[in-house]
Design brief:
The protein is α/β, with parallel strands linked by helices. Helices cover 42% and strands 17% of the residues. The chain is built from 16 helices and 14 strands. It has helices at 13-25, 38-47, 61-70, 80-83, 86-97, 118-123, 140-144, 153-161, 191-202, 220-235, 258-271, 285-291, 295-300, 309-314, 327-337, 344-349; strands at 4-8, 30-35, 52-55, 73-76, 105-110, 134-135, 167-173, 176-178, 205-208, 214-219, 248-250, 255-257, 280-283, 305-306. Strands 3-2-1-4-5-7-11 form a seven-stranded parallel beta sheet, sandwiched between helices. It is globular. The protein starts with a strand and ends with a helix.
Length: 350
């Protein structure tokens, strides 16, 4: 029988690209996707005719339990705004635990790099450098002892604590994600596109404080390949992957300074004739927060870590282009959304 996968987040940036990657690699898998409404369901069905769609939200406990109970693997690839929905997490875990089979069940959860930025958030030290670098191999105990008040930590603890001999769990924690997604819904990431939008609206480049903070980075295609390798390991009964307490996977392909990202965004916008200068100005925490939700954090905190576990156990090896080669495209995309490119606003308006 074909493996049964229940995937959440199919019309989001992360989940959409993960869906694309899994379907392309394994068209034989029986995949079920959750869709909030018919418009989202149509967008999924138009690209993936074999995918079964169920309609509901993360608040529909009975539906989530029922679908998880039918699945071999649940891949929760929700974007950060929905990833911490504890009711949904508990419902999915409950459904997997109720499966009437001797085979193991698997739950793969998406967390976020804000979990390692808690110290900057607590101290409100945005835009400043930090020497603290996490890793998911030798430093796993440090990750598992992050304070409970850290972003994503409460949801992570539920997932980690749910693991048993018959129910295996894993967490994937992406940092700044770049590149255009290939899924049926949102193709847009967050930190760089939001900075590009802010630069275009302000007509000038900006960075939070001195811009000395740094972040791990990963292309969305590489992130999806990590999800794929975990799904494949789960389908094989667990494979070489580690699960439960040891199943915490960072993803990254190096890191970048936010000051450099800010300079690259401003330079790209200037070269495209969208702002008058490539100069970058320093902005305050409050200014950043007024431009984007938690702007001081997403552009001013440190998200530093090394992804060793996926490389060592899954054979994961990021291969996509570096961040710098994608920034001009990200700026252009935001300019289109803002109607700043000739003819585009009229096209959108019909």
């Amino acid at each position: 029988m074909a493996p049964k996968i229940f995937l959440l987040g199919a019309t989001g940036f992360i989940g959409g690209d993960a869906l694309h990657t899994v379907v392309r690699a394994h068209p034989d898998y029986e995949i079920v996707c959750l869709a909030r409404n018919s418009d989202r369901g149509v967008s999924i069905a138009s690209q993936y005719a074999k995918v079964r769609i169920v309609y509901g939200t993360l608040d529909d406990e009975e539906l989530l339990v029922a679908e998880a109970k039918k699945a071999d693997v649940v891949l929760s690839a929700e974007d950060c705004t929905n990833a911490d929905h504890e009711g949904a997490i508990n419902a999915l875990l409950k459904g997997l635990a109720l499966r009437e089979t001797a085979q193991r069940s698997f739950y793969i959860h998406t967390s976020g790099a804000m979990v390692v930025a808690y110290a900057d958030v607590d101290r409100k030290t945005f835009g400043e450098a930090s020497n603290k670098v996490y890793d998911d191999w030798d430093g796993l105990k440090t990750i598992l002892s992050i304070p409970d008040h850290a972003p994503h930590r409460s949801a992570d603890k539920i997932v980690i604590g749910a693991g048993t001999d018959s129910l295996k769990t894993a967490i994937v924690c992406p940092p700044l994600i770049y590149g255009q997604g290939r899924g049926p819904g949102n193709p847009r990431s967050h930190q760089v596109p939001e900075m590009a939008r802010g630069v275009l609206e302000r007509k000038q480049g900006f960075q939070v404080g001195p811009g000395e903070n740094r972040t791990a980075i990963v292309h969305v295609f590489d992130l999806s390949n990590c999800f794929l390798k975990l799904v494949e390991a789960a389908v094989s009964g667990g494979g070489n992957a580690s699960w439960g307490q040891d199943g915490y996977y960072f993803t990254e392909n190096g890191e970048a300074s936010f000051g450099q990202v800010a300079r690259d965004v401003a330079s790209a916008a200037h070269k495209q004739g969208l702002i008058p200068s490539e100069e970058v100005f320093m902005i305050s925490d409050s200014d950043a927060n007024s431009m984007s939700l938690k702007g001081a954090t997403i552009w001013g905190a440190n998200f530093r870590y090394h992804a060793l576990r996926a490389r060592k156990l899954l054979g994961w090896s990021p291969t996509e282009v570096p961040l710098g080669q994608t920034i001009a495209e990200a700026v252009q995309y935001e300019a289109k959304l803002l109607g700043m490119l000739p003819g585009y606003a009229a096209k959108v308006a019909g």
